Amino acid sequence: MYSFSTEGTCSTKINFTVRDGRVYSVSFENGCNGNLKAISALVEGMPVRELIGKLKGIQCKERGTSCSDQLARAVEKVAKTVSAEVLC
């Protein structure tokens, strides 16, 4: 399980697991409960590369980021530091 503190969003932390190149068990602390549960359900089992491609760069209001962007950044950081196997 990975945990990342967010920056610039209402959510304060994101927890998730990466296994066999896919993302599982995404949960957010704080933030818009319904929307974040929906994001978590939609990305369950999604390949790392696909998640990053779909969510990175999405903005909320004029913050320059969003909870989904923060998730993509966190997953990307894990993918870069863990190993090439994560991206398979």
TrEMBL record:
Record keyword Methyltransferase present = no
Catalytic activity annotation: a 2'-deoxyribonucleoside 5'-diphosphate + [thioredoxin]-disulfide + H2O = a ribonucleoside 5'-diphosphate + [thioredoxin]-dithiol
TSCPD domain: residues covered? 6-77
Q: Quote one Gene Ontology molecular function term.
A: nucleotide binding
This entry's Enzyme Commission designation comes to 1.17.4.1
Q: Which keywords annotate this record?
A: DNA synthesis, Nucleotide-binding
Q: Name one GO biological process term.
A: DNA biosynthetic process
Family according to the record: Belongs to the ribonucleoside diphosphate reductase class-2 family.
The family database entries (NCBIfam families) matched by this protein are listed as: TIGR03905_4_Cys (TIGR03905)
Protein's name in the database: ribonucleoside-diphosphate reductase
| Species for this entry | Breznakiella homolactica
